[in-house]
Amino acid sequence: MLYLAKDDPALAELVKNEDNRLETTLNLIAAENHSPQSILEVMGSVFNTKTIEGYPGNRFHAGCINADQVENLAIERGRSLFKAEHVNVQPHSGTSANLAVYFSVLKTGDRILSMSLPHGGHLSHGHSASITSKCFDFSHYKVNPETERIDYDQVRKMAHCLKPRMIVAGASSYPRLIDYEKISGIAKEVSAFFLADMAHLAGLVAANLIPSPVPHSDFVTFTCYKTMMGGRGGVILCREMFGKKIDKAVFPGCQGTSAVNLIAAKALIFKLALEDKFVRAQKSTLANARVMARVLMEKGYHVISGGTDNHQVLIDLTGKGISGKSAEACLESVGIILNRNVVPQDENTPGKVSGIRLGSSAVSARGMGEVQMQKIIDLMDMALMNQKKKAVIKQVKDQVLELCREFPVNGSGSTEK
Ligand SMILES: *Cc1c(COP(=O)(O)O)cnc(C)c1O
Fold this sequence. Notes:
The protein is α/β, with parallel strands linked by helices. It has helices at 2-7, 9-24, 37-43, 65-82, 94-105, 131-135, 152-162, 180-189, 202-206, 243-254, 260-272, 276-298, 324-333, 361-365, 370-385, 390-406; strands spanning 26-27, 51-52, 54-55, 58-59, 86-88, 111-115, 137-141, 166-169, 193-197, 219-223, 234-238, 258-259, 302-303, 312-316, 336-337, 339-341, 355-359.
């Protein structure tokens, strides 16, 4: 970053520090990943300059000869990768994508049924702090308190009772597979549209490792920076019959000009997703999450739903007498980065955050495997159980650093130069 160092040395230093932070810590944030270096290149390319309004072949600004090709490439590759009828690659984010879906076929005030946030759902699924809840009338289904899995009978009952215009399936913290076929069937019973939000799961779906919601859904949304490893931005897949409505809802409905540099990154990751390296990283992500869940349970942690089918492991720390917040801080101090997370039982005591969420994507992208997962959980447990013992904490920190040096972000895994 030669130009940045000249224009703004202080900012250049922060970029360097961030690079260093990523190299020297273990990233267990389930929403993050390490992208291939080529993704960072294309996101920083001259396509930042171009403004596009409208769609390829029908723009409101001139000079789109290359941008049109980029967007068409992203659309074609996305369509083929996810076997979708229609693709919109313009959303700035997953939240933007969801907003556009709601506004494409609903009227403000219409009823939507989605998953409750403390039970795994997302802010953009009608949480009271999100604008989505001000525009539409949301009701939320929950997980079963015993199994900690989606209670499909409850979803059906609520759907029949509330008669929503749309049902949303998808979650930010839910470690199990979602039965899209079943929820789609329920949506059909009550003549509701069905949106599957696979923000967290797109990479695993792209690699064909978990079932795709596409055949069962009217709309599918996702973000590219989570398991998908493709940089920033959102995508909408939908049935052909909704294509025009979706395109209008994205632009000019919810957004102005879209980011061509990010559309280019989407085109790129849709190509890379077919390659062996991507599929291997996703396979390892799935296997590594299972190891983390197993080792945690062996150590007596309450793993929500008793395991995982994806890249996430959710832990309720109540039984260990540690809050989510203090666990997050303690682990950050030893270089293990994750986030505190609400768990289903927190709903009864607002403000309480009893859990932490782990994700296996970023450590898997670094090339780590089963042995390292075992080690990471050992270190995590050692830190949490000895928070006041400075010598132990120091020892854990040193071992985390050693592991990071052995599996560099740059030069191994996904970001090979
Ligand atoms: C992360 C996430 C989103 C939002 O994505 P942004 O790009 O951060 O707006 C939407 N839905 C779900 C289920 C998510 O987990």
